[in-house]
UniProtKB/TrEMBL annotation:
GO terms for cellular component: small-subunit processome. The keyword Protein transport does not apply. Keywords: Nucleus, Ribosome biogenesis, rRNA processing. Residues 118-128 have a biased composition (Basic and acidic residues). One of its GO terms (biological process) is rRNA processing. It comes from Ibidorhyncha struthersii. This is UTP23 protein. It is found in: Nucleus, Nucleolus. Belongs to the UTP23/FCF1 family. UTP23 subfamily. Residues 130-149 form the UTP23 sensor motif region domain. Residues 118-187 are annotated as: Disordered. It comes from the Eukaryota.
Amino acid sequence: RCVLKELESLGKALYGAKLIAQRFQVQNCSHHKDPVSGSACLLSMIEEGNPHHFFIATQDQDLANKVKKKAGVPLLFIIQNTMVLDKPSPKSLAFVQKLQMNQLVPEHQKQSIVQLKEKEGLAKQEGAKRRKRKRAGGPNPLSCLKKKKKKTQEGQEPAAEKKKRRKRNRNRVKAEAVQSVQKNEEE
């Protein structure tokens, strides 16, 4: 709101910029009743670590230098007809490295943690039983062997032995009945 008030006060020279700024969502600032300059308002909104994750887009070098002194605030500017995102400031890079170093555990602390776990019996055993995963195998190699021919004695063919035919049960019953009738007649 402070930027829009400043653009209105500057008059017709920045009327186009005012129209463009009005298209965007207006963020409420803390100086509602007594507006301050646009750059002071933007700086006040990114204080305390930029909690709303704002980007600052400006052509003002003084404002750009002040923004670069704050960590975690991306800076946009225009070169010819192209919007350019400025590389992270040294302050931002240092802040990120500090965060990473605080999150990482130093090597000597890792070793002491391992030793404490071993004392308490919480460490994983290296020699613990590990189950092997069964993997899909091929066919059984014994099922792939060629069938062996049976050896026959004295050259007899096994096919001749198999050619004996069985008689059906009912034929056999009839034949037995006929034989028994014939025996009875003979006697």
